[in-house]
Amino acid sequence: MDCKKVGKLIYELRKEKNMTQKQVAELMNISDKTISKWERGLGCPDISLLLKLSDIFGVSIEGILSGEINLNELEGGNMKNIRFYICDKCGNLITTTGEASISCCGKKIEPSIAKKAEDGHRLNVENIENELFITSEHEMKKEHYISFVAHVKGDRVQIVKQYPEWNMQFRLNQNGRGKLYFYCKEHGLFYQIV
């Protein structure tokens, strides 16, 4: 841990929040001299204080330890760049349109890599009354089911959550050509063009 980099970051984050050293120190139950010492690079925060610093400034502990917060390049929110983060413990689904550091259930999650759907995993898609009618014969048991389906187009995404024991059939607004993404609890993320 580079105390000079960490101190510079703490200074920048404090200024960004329009806070004084005394205000930060009071929130942390330490002296403002300690904050000054950190900002001058003459010491680093004790590990027991990192969580509180993270909460005060709204940044990750990892960012504080590295002494830098890396900003993403502006990607314009193009849904074609969508990434699906799925927690293998609780099934939580998080989407982003750019790089992100995501964690759930105490573990860091990497974005799922979509595989092209083959015959055994393809969804049945029919156009009915300006809607996509989606069905599947996929098993829908607690240990093996499709947990969500997402229709992604350049400017929007529609996500439908699925649950075990449900018959998988639903309608989506047809908003032009795009990709269907769907997540099988046992085999991972798939896509097919519609």
UniProtKB/TrEMBL annotation:
One of its GO terms (molecular function) is iron ion binding. InterPro entries: Cro/C1-type_HTH (IPR001387), Desulfoferrodoxin_Fe-bd_dom_sf (IPR036073), Lambda_DNA-bd_dom_sf (IPR010982). The keyword ATP-binding does not apply. Keywords: DNA-binding. SUPFAM superfamilies: lambda repressor-like DNA-binding domains (SSF47413), Rubredoxin-like (SSF57802), Superoxide reductase-like (SSF49367). Residues 10-64 form the HTH cro/C1-type domain. It comes from the Bacteria. This is Transcriptional regulator, XRE.
